From TrEMBL:
Residues 5-271 form the O-acyltransferase WSD1-like N-terminal domain. Residues 318-463 form the O-acyltransferase WSD1 C-terminal domain. The lineage of its organism: Bacteria, Bacillati, Actinomycetota, Actinomycetes, Pseudonocardiales. Pfam families: WS_DGAT_C, WS_DGAT_cat. One of its GO terms (biological process) is triglyceride biosynthetic process. GO terms for molecular function: diacylglycerol O-acyltransferase activity. Pathway: Lipid metabolism; Glycerolipid metabolism; triacylglycerol biosynthesis. This is Diacylglycerol O-acyltransferase. The keyword Cytoplasm does not apply. It comes from the Bacteria. It is an enzyme of class 2 (transferase).
Length: 469
């Protein structure tokens, strides 16, 4: 019997439209080795690792009459060259050209008639670098049965392409409509209530679908610390269009740790304080009225342990992500007072026995940040957009170099999706001594997202300068 999508996974397919594609992404920059790093080598590497994530060769097939949720089936026409694509910038390609391309690529929804992922090798970057841009649907990555492909394609040491031939992959026969109906009827006999809910999902709109899966969502995420009251109004909440902009900021992990050592809290507290300072400067640059009590509410997904699990690192993934609502004090002019406000707001989670330390997350096999950012996006998508202004995900990564084949990764920027009424989303990842911010903005409502990116770096400098004084 084919593997059926969970209610939550199916909801990401039901709710997707051309304006709000439901995928997450990443931009990894690599130093091309002397031996080269070609498109053919990348395809070979992907083919060798696909066996570790079988879902990446499967597509979603609906059940006739919507009598049950869709199922995952092997794609008999799977073509790795369709999913692993090649692009190039005019040499020497700049950061601005790369990130403009990223915004255009990520604005396009994935084809739901094929496996729900794409990867682009971008050549022509200055300094002999190449970039890898990934897109993965939120229905695909749940952290338990399926992880992000970035978690299996990277290694802690250079790996030359394996010379032995891979065993040919033989897809299982795709079930026909009759088989899918019989399976649905069999499940309905066991769970008759589900039939009513599945038929309802076929004839109601996205709002009703969201309400239908609300019960399942409660097992995935919980909001703590702030009552579910409407978020403050402001330019971050706008009706978004199809086009996207992408911008980045960079800083050093040692600098953020130095601020934490002087003023307490966690590195995550410092990251959110950096975001707070940048948002304050950005709002002022737009002529927004700010008072001492002005706040911007962020939805901050955080990893927690399973209360009944065995405490292992794999148990920290999957459905164990809690989303905290944090009021960022953009009205406070003093950066360290802002830090103390943020630390206080997150203290309930940081003191919780269920919270997962960054050091524990670093033990996850492979490069875990892409998977954890995806889980954060899933958590955010489960909330009403009326109760927060933006999403900020911060996932610690390994502090050692990683490689795709023989190409060393130098930077990694997460790319978070936008909801219908959120004009900005921020992903943060630390890696090999650096901290990398990826900002996704709506092209109309956040035309100055690159300005905000520069203000993030200025916000870090503000904290450092004040600390030295």
């Amino acid at each position: 019997m084919p593997d059926r999508l969970s209610a939550l996974d199916a909801s990401f397919l039901y709710l997707e439209d051309p304006v709000t594609p439901m995928h997450v992404g990443g931009v990894a920059v690599f130093r091309r080795p002397r031996s080269g790093f070609s498109y053919a080598q990348l395809v070979t590497l992907v083919e060798q690792r696909l066996a570790l994530v079988p879902r990446y060769r499967q597509k979603v097939v609906g059940v006739p009459g919507h009598l049950a949720r869709p199922v995952w089936v092997d794609d008999p026409d799977f073509d790795v060259a369709y999913h692993v694509r090649r692009s190039a910038l005019p040499r020497p390609g700049s950061d601005e050209q790369l990130f403009d391309l990223v915004g255009r690529l990520l604005a396009r929804p994935l084809d739901q008639n094929r496996p729900l992922w794409e990867m682009y090798l971008v050549e022509g970057l200055a300094g002999g670098h190449v970039a890898l841009v990934t897109k993965t649907h939120q229905a695909l990555v749940d952290g338990v049965r399926t992880i992000d492909f970035g978690q299996v394609i990277l290694d802690a040491a250079p790996q030359a392409p394996e010379e032995h031939a891979e065993e040919p992959w033989l897809p299982r026969r795709e079930p026909g409509g009759t088989r899918l109906l019989l399976d649905a009827v069999f499940e309905t006999v066991r769970r008759p209530r589900e039939l009513v809910e599945n038929v309802r999902s076929a004839v109601t709109d996205a709002v009703a679908t969201t309400q239908k899966v609300a019960g399942a969502v409660e097992t995935l995420v919980s909001a703590i610390g702030i009552a579910a009251r409407p978020a403050p109004s402001g330019p971050l909440n706008a009706t978004v269009g199809k086009a996207r902009l992408f911008a980045v900021a960079r800083t050093r992990l040692a600098d953020l740790r130095g601020v934490r050592a002087l003023h307490g809290g966690t590195v995550n507290d410092v990251v959110l304080t950096v975001v707070t300072g940048a948002l304050r400067s950005w709002l002022l640059s737009r002529g927004e009225q700010i008072t001492s009590s002005t706040v911007v509410r962020a939805l901050v997904p955080l990893a927690v342990r399973d209360e009944v699990g065995d405490g292992t690192v794999p148990g920290m993934l999957g459905n164990q992500v809690t989303a905290q609502l944090v009021d960022l004090p953009v009205g406070e002019p003093n950066p360290f007072v802002r830090l103390h406000h943020v630390s206080h707001a997150l203290r309930a989670h940081n003191d919780s026995v269920r919270s997962v330390a960054a050091s524990a997350l670093l033990r996850v096999g492979g490069f875990a940040p892409p998977t954890l950012h995806s889980l954060g996006a899933r958590a955010a998508a489960s909330f009403s957009q009326r109760i927060f202004n933006l999403v900020v995900t911060n996932v610690p990564g390994p502090q050692i170099p990683l490689y795709a084949g023989t190409a060393r990764m130098t930077e990694m920027f997460p790319v978070m999706p936008l909801s219908k009424h959120q004009a900005l989303a921020i992903g943060v990842t630390s890696y090999d001594g650096g901290v990398y911010f990826g900002l996704t903005g709506d092209r109309s409502a956040m035309s100055d997202v690159d300005v905000l990116a520069r203000m993030l770096e200025e916000s870090v400098e503000e904290l450092l300068t004040t600390a030295r004084a």
